[in-house]
Model the fold of this input.
Amino acid sequence: MRTLALAPIIFVCCVGCSSTPPTPTGPQPGDVIDEGNYSLTVLAPATPATCDVHASSPSHFTDATAEFGLSNVALGGFYSADLDHDGYPDLVLVSGSQKRGTVGSATPDVLVLMNRPAGGGRTLVDETQTSGLFATRDGSTTETRVSDLVAFADVDGDGNLDAFSGINFDPANPVADKNEVMINDGQGHFTFAAASDPSSIVEPNGYQAVYTDIDNDGALDLLTTYWYKPNASIGSQQQLFHGNGDGTFSAITQAAGLQMNNTGSSQSILQGTSSRPSFGAMACDLDGDGYPEILVSSYGGESNLLYKNDGSGNYARIAKGAFDGDTIVDYHDNEYFKCYCTAHASDAYCTGAAKPAIGCPQPVESYWQVGLSDSPAMANGNNFSAACRDIDGDGKPDLFQGTIRHWWAGNATDPSQILHNDTIPGGDVTLSRVDSTTSGITYPHLDPLGWNEGIQQTSLVDMDNDGRVDILNGGSDYAYQYGHLFIQQTDGTFQDLAQQWGMIFPCMDGLAVADYDRDGDLDVVVRGSLFRDCATGWKPLAGKDPGFAGYKVPEVHIFTNDASEHASWLEVRLASTDGATNKMGIGAKVAVTVNGVTQVQEVQGSHGIGSESDDPGVLFFGLGACAAIEKIVVTWPNQAHTQDTWVNAPSNHFMELRQGDATLYGVNLGK
Done:
């Protein structure tokens, strides 16, 4: 392990010696390093002192939608990423339309909004056409390419964020475009990579793409997951592509151990061998061996999938664990079971069944299949996004799994929960579900017609800069649903303070968390859903809910945060230099120690439904009342798992840490 200390230069004077000190060598504090499309300033060391890293005051969020130029923006999915290396996160939006968009339309299907200065603040400016991100391969000057999701990472090792642009393929209604990898020139201008396997191997209903380095060879790999096959009860086959380091990828799904049994038979579902309908996936190192596990969140009651990496990029499923689902499998309180028994009352199977509290759909056998619907294999969650980060400060990454629950489905449906990492060093991945009443992660049941609760997006973030991980949840499409901000308390429990802190947003569907104004705290971009009750709204409930008129369009809003006004912070991005490590350090562990308290984060690709993206490559640490950092340790994602350590670093900076370089660089915010 190399220790890269920022040490002051000490000059020793003596009688008869020259009074002129020697000229320092190497970068000195205040030096500006010009990197072409961005610049850095060398930072002076700081002296750590006793401080409270958990010092905190309540944050306040302000709806700054108009200020950022988003008042008339209404699109489905969105992603934050610094496309032009100016230090500010930009915003990319897609509609999910299955038709090409029209250039110059008042209702665009895709947008690239660049983060630009405006009157002392920031605003988002439409530069879609000049970016080339949604250009068509046939060179159309009047159309934009179909794109349902985007994931960003540096796939060719030049230090710039490239993009995977995916389509939601429907074989019955094929579109003119395919999945594409787009190469960034560093100024936010994109061109097509050579076509490779992700363009030709396309499963129906794609919802997620994740970049990771499965074998630590320095070239990023790509995982794509999918929802149900058309007119089928099983999911489309997940796909894994090995990166070649130049923006092309080769299919390795079967060779890597991810191929499923896709016959679609009930037996394959019962045995858990069929492909899962998935709205979300991610990759993170759960067992601390330096290689990423793959996690697939499953919809429709089927169990989630957790795959262990053997250290060479080959995977084996870890079944029957807590990530699969919880242990509650009793189906007798499911209203569809009760409906089935109204038509089969004489069956011994229905002995003791209660009367249903719903109007039963017909035929009841289409909604309840004996031997399948009542199986433990189908008693899991309607899972959407999961996120991975050390929540309790023990140094091991935990999980939060978001899901949708309905009153009529009964208690066998899994809740949204924290999964604590109990893995012993050198042992198998072991997780345990934290009871929601113990953690404080509970959701109000207000709808008098029957409650629904749903978490479609989730981010594990520090929203008040107190050095503790908080849980930010998007909502779902049902009545009386809002976003939730669970702030971690001193005892490790959580309290939902979203509305108290000013983040009041019905049907919060979509999250993109980043420090958009780079003032030292995390802001949030959200969207209003147009599905179900979110389009029609709901009635007020006296003393409980003011009611909501519904959305006419999928409004996009940004909430800015003021946490940096009362607490310190650090933002970090990595740059590898050895040629053996992927350039942006996806998979690296960054440990920041202040006053004896260590926070650990892993640089990850996207996660969750639609490739949720939170400023790829940038890590944010809240530092409470601390003005200096004792040390920062980076464990790089290469096959040697090399480490670098920096000491005596100042707080309240956006830094670039370079592999093997003793200097701490501050990122100069440009443009």
